[in-house]
Specification:
By secondary structure, the protein is of the alpha/beta class. It has two domains: 73 residues; 103 residues. The chain contains five helices and six strands. The relative contact order is 0.12. The site of iron/sulfur cluster (SF4) has 12 residues, from loops.
């Protein structure tokens, strides 16, 4: 018996022409679901995984390797600290032309095909803070030799965090040594008449 508890990262199961696929929400990985993967999905959050089952054809050794492979592919959560994302500290060889800021996971639409569950991503939708947003602009400017840079606002629906967008645009305007271009991936259904001036101004 495998006493390890498996915990899958957020996912959706998609069915296309009779075949089932596992779509990993956080990294956009797609894997076809075979009987072995199907078995492990049924064990999500189970305390104990049986070594043998009618629905899985793996030996104990193969099962351990399968779990290892799922961790390597970020399908299953791993305690391996070497896989955590470290901040960029030595950025001397980076020259950025722009950044994309996911300012709001929240969305006021509910598209049937939405991989992010309208921003919920299997947890509470997040919104970028002003501290993080302005720090991101500072990071861009510190790591860019370009005279003009692009800042893209994405979501969910980015306009659900319009106050942050206003703060970032205002902050950029105070940096007079650069020319800024802005892009906003809004769906126009969260726009108030007064917001349009912010977006085109
Ligand atoms: S607009 Fe995008 S984020 Fe919003 S529900 Fe549709 S697909 Fe999801």
């Amino acid at each position: 018996m495998n006493t390890e508890k498996l915990e899958f990262n957020p996912y959706k199961i998609l069915e296309v022409k009779g075949r089932k696929y596992l779509y990993m929400i956080e990294n956009s990985g797609i894997f076809e679901i075979d009987p072995n993967l199907d078995f492990f999905l049924s064990m999500d959050n189970a305390e104990n995984i049986p070594c043998t089952s009618d629905s899985v054809s793996l030996s104990v050794k193969e099962q351990a390797q399968f779990i290892k492979d799922m961790k390597a592919a970020d399908i299953v959560k791993s305690n391996d600290s070497t896989r955590s994302i470290n901040p960029v500290e030595d950025s001397s060889d980076i020259n950025l032309n722009g950044i994309t800021l996911m300012v709001s996971q929240m969305c006021n639409l509910r598209c049937r095909y939405c991989y992010g569950e309208a921003g919920e991503f299997n947890h509470t939708p997040g919104r970028m803070s002003k501290t993080i947003g302005l720090a991101a602009v500072d990071f861009l400017l510190k790591n860019s030799n370009s005279s003009s840079v692009l800042i893209s606002f994405m979501g969910g629906e980015p306009l659900l965090n319009l106050d942050l967008i206003k703060s970032i645009v205002s902050y950029c305007k105070s940096k007079t040594d650069r020319k800024f271009f802005f892009f906003c991936d809004n769906k126009w259904n969260a726009v108030e008449p007064g917001d349009i001036a912010v977006l085109i101004g």
